[in-house]
Design a protein that fits this description.
heterodimer; A: alpha/beta; D-Maltodextrin-Binding Protein, domain 2; 2 domains; 5-stranded mixed β-sheet; 11 strands; about 25% strand; elongated; B: BirA Bifunctional Protein, domain 2; 9-stranded mixed β-sheet; 3-stranded antiparallel β-sheet; globular
Chain lengths: ~220, ~350
Amino acid sequence: MSPIHGLKIAVPRGALFEGTVDLLAALGLDTEELRANDRKLLFEDIGVITMRPSDVPTYVEAGAADLGVTGKDVLLEQRGHAPNEHGRDVYELLDLGFGRCTMVMASKAGPDPAVESLRRLGVMRVATKYPRIAARHLEETGRQGEIVEVKGSVELAPLTGMVDAIVDLTATGTTLRENNLVVREEIVVCTARLIANPVAHKLKAAQIDALLGQLRGLPAASAS
Amino acid sequence: MIHPIPSGTRDVLPQETGEVRAITDTLRTAFDRHGYGEIYTPALEYESVLARADMAEAQPAYRVFDETGVVLALRSDMTVPIARVVATRYASSEPPLRFCYFAHCYRGVRPQRGQLRELLQAGIELIGSPAPEGTAEALTVLCRSLDAVGLKDYRVGMGDASLFPALMASLQVREPVRHGLLEALVRRDFVELGQRLHDAGLDGQAADLLLDVPQRRGGPELLTDAPEPAVEAVTGMRRVYELLDPDVAERVIFDLGLIRNIGYYTGAVFEVYDPALGTPIGGGGRYDELLGRFGRALPAVGFALDVDQLHQALAGEERGTGLLLAGSADGAGGGALS
């Protein structure tokens, strides 16, 4: 078994793993070992490396992988903050359509505590794993905020009164509901994206275009 | 004791200095052989002078006040200072003028990305020689210099900064939409480019062209079936290509989406790639309007190599452990080039 068109691909572990592996299988890659062994990281014979989704742009930007699959949420979070500042130097080639989630702002059910904080205190406190997306959203909507970055369950932060609201990714909204939180604003819809290293995009143009052609031909991928 | 230096700056010790010096000496000999005279300019310039150029993302990032309260800036490239030199010290000299330089430039950085605040650039500027001859000469000097330092697998991507704007203009894209499309392209976000085209309500054929053309890259066959609005830029590229010697021509990849993040480019733009490195080693292009801003309107072209990146690429090729090389161990890699 050999890599698809000789390309090395960074595959995200976690929520996007199944969708990505299904896609690779549809392209004709032998994914049996990839599915079976969740501790192995490097599958050299099929040109696949696995990692957490937020590491995918790092490896692709450095050229350790030619292509990668990761969520738009990851790409947005790693995008530069200033208007003309670049994010990761990677090409975003295709919206793969799967892994659809929404980045939302949510707060405790009932009267929105964020609104009262803004009115009386001039700022709202927001807990998130996505500090840049949250800060950008507040700036774009003309509100002052204080961003509290947390690593674990974000839902805890407003329940303990530490913050007024959270910015987080949700697929079904179940976790939010179970924690008595309601969605106040939808910020952006995020899906899985195919990204490429800029040098590989030039030096392996034919191989990458062949793979893109195959992907666009698949019924599942929504080539926008 | 720990006495830190600013992130993105480095001390260079004798072993590395020796290797870097060997590279720059070879480059200097190659530039000199093509008639490019080396010049120095001050690292500090008046901010108001540097601001005459449209640097976009590469604008000077570090400023100081001098004792009279005037703002000085650390140069972010050598092209703008050389434009100033030409307009002042060579105001009446007969063009073309040929300069080369080895100089540190200063850029703002994104944190934790290994980017350098202080980078050593080696490059040339050819002033007063229009396209296509001037462009072909710059590409030739570029390739001969890289050959001289012994870089083996490099390729030079060539595009045209005017191509996408011309495409938008001829397809009647409305002015407010253009900025967003260009922004998406500069960010190499083809998904967003597609979405913005869709949102702008452009008809299917125009939208398809605007999404497809900047993704076209490959050999000279790319230049034969360019869509009508891109013909002028593509013809320009072909004229340059036809002037190149075979050993230079075989290094060139055409890239209709190539766009540099410096604002002053007007025509042909290029970037140097090597499979041993995930980022470009250098780049350049035509800047036919920059000199005019300093008072001596002359067409010009140049390139700059990032010496540290070049050093890394050479080391990577030598070890055969280039990042992108590793992925193509089965020999499938690089097929796009031949």
